[in-house]
Design a protein that fits this description.
The complex is a heterodimer of chains A (about 160) and B (about 625).
Chain A (H helix, E strand, L loop, with lengths): L21 E3 L2 E2 L2 H10 L19 H11 L6 H5 L6 H12 L2 H4 L2 H14 L10 H5 L7 H15 L1
Antiparallel strand pairs in A: 1-2
Helix pairs in contact in A: 1-6, 2-4, 4-6, 4-8, 6-8
Chain B lengths: L11 H11 L12 E5 L3 H13 L2 E5 L17 E2 L11 H11 L6 H21 L24 E2 L5 H19 L2 E4 L2 E9 L2 E9 L5 E5 L2 E4 L20 H8 L4 E2 L4 E8 L10 E2 L9 E5 L16 E2 L1 H5 L9 H13 L11 E4 L1 H7 L1 H19 L8 E10 L2 E2 L12 E3 L17 H22 L11 H20 L5 H16 L5 H21 L11 H25 L23 H4 L1 E6 L8 E6 L14
Parallel strand pairs in B: 1-2, 1-9, 2-5, 9-18
Antiparallel strand pairs in B: 3-4, 6-7, 7-8, 10-17, 10-19, 11-12, 11-16, 13-14, 13-15, 15-16, 19-20
The chains are: A mainly alpha (about 160), B alpha+beta (about 625).
Bound molecules: flavin-adenine dinucleotide and iron/sulfur cluster (SF4).
Chain lengths: ~160, ~625
């Protein structure tokens, strides 16, 4: 919004997708993303019952890549930008963040299956490699994570 | 009102352990019979709700946000402290305890601070286990950096998004409990009143922000984890929606409000562009680790900062505080910046800014190191100001940032109303008169993960509860009170918007109760604020309807509360005739312009008790004793 010219047309519209019902004006209900999270977007660590933080080193490269994915703020811009209303970039970011960490590897199978199942249930579309999501994402989440999501999913289906 | 801090006896390092042993437990099979209301799902609320849910309690969690992910905790950039001593630089629980008591200018409770330092290491363990991607070194171990006011590297961070990552961690733990059915989450619900039955907090009144419906919920205990009240100042680094309504309405129902005048100004914010700007942006103070602060030596300097040679620059913090330099605590850094600008050395279009320069560290460490450390902060600065901080120094200026004050709580985090607990920034707890950097995230998560789950259990196990029904009188009365208030607000139909009133209040607050305070200006604030409030109730215009999604109406209720809280804040500031931490009274300073405490008269927590709107509240005092860290005048020379 910083760079525009006089008499340019600026279009403002609510995030348009079936999975984000409109509440009023530009306000939509994005709780479908929270339900995807509740389906499996976590590591089942109990409060208190965890090892000392430095007991499991994580290769810097993995930690950095996990951090790249974790930057997702769950805004839904990727969904709104996608011609299929796919939430793959969002789900991929979450799955990727955990799959890259040793702590997250243990539940990787159930996690990806449950999150993808919920994503489908909420009525989000599928990815057809448009990359509109990556272009709009304010946190620079890349489609490489979608590739990882696909790998994780196939791996989980086959094992 | 009697204030019993319930500090356990015994040596400080044993207090928490022996207290935990002495606390009553709720039998696991009985826990689901107890309902706990959690208002707020930021760091403190989400971690508490997740932990209580996991223990088996029946938790009802509320937020005016659409998702727990939206809580203001997400904005925290810099980091979270824990004395793990991974840097082998001599850190310990004792040192963090000592630094926090001293940094808080001896206005915090020693026992609470010690406990905070004690459990802070566990927080890092917990977050790592949840998959929080903290920064690591090349061997794969966790990396640390040093942060304002500390001489050791004890701050854990996740790029410039530590708050976001910790919040997402707590939110994922909460999501897991929502999935398990132990926590029910109510999005877009704003708590508007507390329900008290037989002297116990037993429920809340909420507005469904989508339909406008007023709802009632009952429980055995209520927790407020609703964040801070810095938006009383209108312009602050808080999210626009952050507000004090939950704690303020609880105050009006009898919970004491402690040290409201202890608010913090953050030294490194992007300066205001013009009068209509409604929000300020913080640049993490971690920037002060490498950045050097300076102003031109000449007043009215017109050269570009890059063109000003070394000898014409005044690195005033390094000059005044040779051992701490740019890392002096926030209040000192803020006051000095204002002083420089007041004297005419300020830079930028408004003259209300100083430079924060990275040319040296970029030369010394290379651009890639600075990029790795602060990349997203530099991007943010670039996006907002359209200036590239890799090339020319940033301009920064102080802004209101944090509230150390809040509802008074005892060692168990219970307010003066039995069954009403308060966690996170909403309570007054552990930071005294000044919070050190990277300590709020620590406190919020300590409260939520490691303190409330125990102390709340003890309360539930040792209290008798009469059955309550939603149509009992206390619920009905509270509900109709709120319905009446909304009706009144909607019917005023005046000429000014809510925002205008908030801006007017903010102007008075910043000018009279901001960085430097004095008797005359505080008295002026106490005259002005009630006038604005009276006009608000006669001349505010709220468009839209009450039974609909109505952002104006939401704001109106919040601003109505700020208009009362602002008065209490000023009154507290007036009564505290000393300078300490974030509270700087111009009349009380040393010859060198440092804050001058008065431990004889003011080593106490001021806990105010509501007496009616516009009536003088009652002052209750909790004396503070310092057995382990002997008060000394802070010196960062
Ligand atoms: C810009 C910025 C940067 C910061 N950086 C750091 C840092 O680097 N390190 C550090 O330690 N601290 C930092 N802090 C401070 C720290 O982020 C906050 O103190 C802390 O996150 C507060 O957490 P909380 O859980 O108490 O409240 P919040 O995160 O504010 O959560 C409040 C919750 O309460 C809900 N709520 C409030 N009122 C109601 C109501 N009436 N009804 C229903 N729900 C309600 C909200 O919806 C939300 O869920 C920073 C703060 C700011 C503003
Ligand atoms: S646009 Fe980017 S940040 Fe927003 S939800 Fe999608 S992946 Fe996350």
């Amino acid at each position: 919004m910083r760079v525009f010219h006089d008499s340019d047309t600026i279009v403002a519209e609510p995030w348009r997708t079936k999975a984000f019902p409109i509440l009023k004006d530009l306000i939509v209900d994005r709780t479908s993303l929270d339900r995807i999270m509740a389906a499996g977007g976590y590591i089942s660590a109990k409060t208190g019952g965890v090892p000392e933080a430095n007991s499991i080193p994580v290769p810097k490269h993995d930690a950095e890549e996990s951090m790249d994915a974790a930057a997702c703020i769950g805004c839904g811009a990727c969904v709104a930008a996608c011609p299929n209303s796919s939430a793959m970039l969002f789900v991929a970011a979450k799955v990727s963040q955990f799959a890259l960490l040793p702590q997250g590897k243990i539940e990787r199978k159930e996690r990806v299956l449950r999150m993808v199942e919920q994503m489908d249930k909420e009525g989000f579309g599928n990815c057809s490699n448009n990359y509109a999501c990556e272009a709009e994402c304010p946190k620079k989440i890349t489609v490489t994570h979608i590739a990882r999501l696909n790998r994780e999913f196939i791996r989980a289906e086959l094992t | 009102m009697t204030l019993d801090s319930k500090i356990p006896s015994g040596p400080i390092e044993k207090k928490w352990d022996s207290h935990r042993f002495n606390m009553k437990l709720v039998n696991p099979s009985n826990r689901r019979k107890y309902t706990v209301i959690m208002v707020g799902t930021g760091l403190a609320g989400a971690s508490a709700a997740a932990s209580l849910g996991e223990l088996g309690y029946n938790v009802l969690a509320f937020s005016y946000h659409e998702s727990p992910r939206r809580a203001h905790s997400i904005a925290a950039q810099g980091g979270i402290n824990a004395p793990k001593n991974y840097s082998n630089d001599g850190d310990s629980i004792w040192r963090l305890f000592y630094d926090t008591v001293k940094g808080g200018d001896y206005r915090a409770r020693e026992a609470n601070v010690y406990r905070l330092a004690q459990v802070s290491g566990n927080i890092i363990d917990q977050c790592v286990a949840q998959g929080v991607p903290f920064a690591r070194d090349y061997a794969g171990y966790l990396d640390n950096r040093s942060f304002g006011g500390a001489q050791v590297s004890r701050t854990f961070y996740a790029r410039g998004q530590t708050g976001q990552q910790l919040l997402l961690g707590a939110y994922s733990a909460l999501s897991r409990q929502i999935n398990a059915g132990t926590v029910k989450f109510f999005p877009r619900r704003e708590m508007l009143d507390l329900v008290i039955v037989d002297g116990q907090a037993r429920g809340i009144i909420c507005r469904d922000l989508v339909t406008g419906k007023i709802e009632t919920y009952a429980a055995n205990a209520v927790v407020l984890a609703t964040g801070g009240y810095a938006n009383t100042f209108y312009l602050s680094t808080m999210a626009k929606a952050s507000n004090a309504t939950a704690i303020w309405r609880a105050y009006k129902k009898g919970a004491a409000f402690a040290n409201p005048c202890f608010t913090q100004i953050h030294p490194t914010c992007i300066p205001q562009g013009g009068p209509y700007q409604s929000k300020l942006t913080l640049m993490s103070e971690s920037l002060r680790n490498d950045g050097r602060i300076w102003v031109p030596k000449k007043k009215g300097e017109t050269r570009k900062p890059q063109d000003i040679p070394e000898e014409d620059r005044d690195y005033y913090l390094e000059r005044l505080y040779p051992s701490f330099g740019n890392l002096v605590p926030r209040d000192v850094a803020s006051r000095r910046a204002k002083e420089m600008c007041d004297k005419g050395f300020g830079v930028g279009a408004t003259g209300l800014a100083v430079y924060l320069d990275f040319a040296d560290p970029i030369k010394r460490l290379g651009k890639h190191v600075i990029e790795e450390r602060y990349g997203n902060l530099f991007d943010m600065y670039h996006e907002i100001t359209a200036e590239d901080p890799y090339k020319s120094p940033m301009r920064i200026y102080p802004a209101v940032h944090y509230a150390m004050g809040g509802l008074w709580v005892d060692y168990n985090l219970m307010s003066t109303i039995p069954g009403l607990f308060v966690a996170g920034e909403a309570n007054f707890s552990d930071h005294g008169a000044n919070r050190l950097g990277a300590s709020a995230l620590m406190q919020g998560l300590a409260d939520g993960y490691f303190i409330l789950p125990y102390t709340l259990g003890d309360y539930l196990a040792s209290t008798k509860f009469a059955p309550v029904k939603m149509d009992d009188a206390p619920f009905k009365e509270a509900q109709s009170g709120i319905e009446d208030m909304i009706k009144t607000l909607m019917s005023i139909n005046g000429k000014k918007t809510v925002e205008e009133f908030h801006r007017e209040l903010g102007k008075v607050m910043w000018e009279c109760v901001g960085m430097g305070r004095n008797k005359a200006r505080l008295q002026k604030a106490l005259q002005e604020i009630p006038k604005i409030r009276d006009e608000f109730w006669n001349n505010v215009k709220i468009v839209g309807a009450a039974n609909d999604l109505n952002a104006e109406l939401e704001r109106a209720g919040r601003v109505a509360d700020f208009l009362e809280l602002g008065e209490l804040l000023s009154l507290d500031a007036l009564h505290r005739e000393e300078s300490c931490g974030g509270h700087f009274r111009e009349e009380y300073q040393t010859e060198e312009g440092e804050a001058l405490r008065n431990d004889k008269k003011f080593a106490y927590v001021a806990a105010w008790e509501f007496a009616g709107v516009g009536k003088k509240p009652i002052l209750n005092k909790e004396p503070l004793e310092f057995e382990y860290v002997k008060p000394s005048q802070r010196s960062y020379k």
